[in-house]
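Friendly challenge for the regulars: who can give me the structure tokens for this chain first? No prize, just bragging rights.
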Amino acid sequence: MTKELAQEPALKVCTYCDQEKVRIWCGAKLKDGSKVFIDHKHQRWAGRRCPDCEKSRVQTAVKCDRFAKANILRELESKGFEILSSAVPIKVRKDEIEFTVGMRRAFMDRGEIVLENEMETGVDMVALVFETVRLATPEQISAMPNVRVVGSQTNQLPEDTIVSRPASLSSNLG
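First reply, four minutes later:
Bragging rights claimed.
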């Protein structure tokens, strides 16, 4: 990184949460020539994403394993959504309208739905992945009639797919 003269604070709209946030060029540039921007808390912007949205995106991506993501994608497809990007946050389309889908783990406790943490901003829908626990012995599992193992060599989980947007859609976003 190289340092140059920093600029005054400015407001910039985050493309994820559509909120105006402080974005300050800290005077540093990366090797590729791109400028490094921070917010008023000295947290780094990630391209057009504010630090809060980037933190939420990374936390969700780390917690959303391939098994949970495969379940979410299967549910979205069964509801008629076209998957545009399976990388977190998931991008889908239905009836020519694009949606951003977040993910939260949840469980039931005495009739209440308990969410893992706060809802993220900048999403149109949230996939609630319910965590349940059932105890069984290996013998009981092998005797169950409708059990299929995914992740084995015969039943692979889907890989992430990213479908680029046409230039006309990308230019309208920012």
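The CA atoms of residues 164 and 170 lie 9 Å apart. The longest helix spans residues 51-63. Your move, everyone else.
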